[in-house]
Design goal:
Length: 129
């Protein structure tokens, strides 16, 4: 998975430093989900879930299906599932759905961090070697 993510990420980096933007989006979504889980106030809960959903929609909009191939399709499916779970949390008050969404988002975030680390190491060894 990391190699496939690295290949997809290389396209993002070649277009610009989109990788840092993607990481920031993941961090924002994760932070919003944590805020929702901790919220005692229903308004804060709704705003936090809504913000997380907006960020996931931005991640979907960032997908490059033409160059990303199967990875982009799989990311879309995961993002779509996360949106569904967040919608359940919002409309039905199912806070455990946030845990599911958070778990997937956290794994994706970790994969992006690892892929970026590998990419930068590969880039340094190519430039230096």
């Amino acid at each position: 998975m990391v190699n496939a993510t690295l290949a997809y990420q290389r396209n993002s980096i070649e277009v610009g430093d989109g990788a840092n933007i993607i990481l920031a989006l993941y961090e924002g979504a994760l932070r919003s989900m944590l805020e929702a889980k901790k919220a005692d106030d229903s308004l804060i809960y709704m705003k936090s879930v809504d913000k997380a959903m907006s960020i996931v929609r931005a991640l979907i909009a960032s997908l490059d299906f033409e160059n990303g191939g199967e990875i982009a399709v799989n990311l879309y499916r995961l993002y779509d599932f996360i949106l569904w779970r967040l919608d359940e949390a919002l409309t039905r008050g199912e806070k455990y759905a946030i845990d599911e969404a958070y778990g997937i988002m956290d794994e994706l975030y970790k994969a992006w961090v690892e892929a970026l680390r590998n990419f930068r190491c590969d880039e340094k060894s190519t430039v230096g070697g």
